[in-house]
Amino acid sequence: MVKDNANGLEKLFGSKTRTKLLNLFFSNSTQSYYVREITRVIDEQINSVRRELLNLDSVGIIKNETFDNKVYYSANMKHPYSKPLVELFTVKVDTSKEHDIHRASWDEYVKPVKNYLRALVVTNRAPGEEGVDLFIVGNDKTKKLSHWAEVVEKKQGKPLNYMIMSEDDYSYRKSVKDRFIFEVMQMDITDIYDPEKILVKGK
Questions:
Q1: Of all helices (H) and strands (E), which one includes residue 70?
Q2: Which of 50, 126, 165, 195 gives a 20 to 30 Å CA spacing to 110?
Q3: Is 188 inside any structural domain?
Q4: Among 89, 111, 130, where does a domain finish?
């Protein structure tokens, strides 16, 4: 995502909130979000977000649909400016190095909570798919891991579903063949942080 030119883009698009919204939608063009997810991720006031969503929706840059009594917003990829906006808000990477870049980013992410984190599973959850984006095993009594997950969510620039579980709880649920644990491990997993191999112990 474009960060270095944030001030310039705010001037171009006329609003910090509008720029953040365009960044969210067009750097994650296949996903949709409801209002409270959006306010949490872009860290802006709900009234400002609602106002800018109406503006963008009125000119057709984004679209909305209602599901389960919630209104979800997403990029309108049929709009004539959609491709330029995707190019503007998406960093091009060498795909041959993409896995190494992704791995390095998660190694960097976990550094602040290594004393609390025992294991981490990162999935490639599709929009609307059941499950979690992050499955976290560790000590969250001081809410260090909860706060960390929120920080990661903002760095990723999109809402994340995550579950935090103590090591004892994980071990017990694994021993009784808990369905949730089984389903997480059957998802499309992109990264695993498990230095002590607790995810495979007693397998």
A1: strand 70-75
A2: 126
A3: yes
A4: 89
Distance between CA atoms of 109 and 99, rounded to whole angstroms? 15
Closest CA to 54 of 38, 43, 68, 69: 38
What range does the domain containing 110 cover?
A: 95-193
Do residues 54 and 118 both lie within one domain?
A: no
What is the model's pTM? 0.54
Strands 162-165, 134-138: pairing kind: parallel
Amino acid at the residue 179: R
In angstroms, the CA 158 to CA 11 distance is 23
Q: How many CB atoms lie within 10 A of CB 98?
A: 10
Which SS3 state, helix, strand or coil, does residue 147 take? helix
154: left (phi over 0), alpha (psi -120 to 50) or beta: alpha
HEC readout, 152-198:
HHHHHCCCCCEEEECHHHHHHHHHCCCHHHHHHHCCCEEEEECCCCC
The contacts of residue 46 (CB under 8 Å, 6+ apart) are 35, 36, 39
Give SS3 for 60: coil
- For the chain, 203 residues long, the average pLDDT of each consecutive 10-residue run is 47 78 85 85 90 92 86 90 84 44 64 92 80 93 92 80 93 90 88 86 55
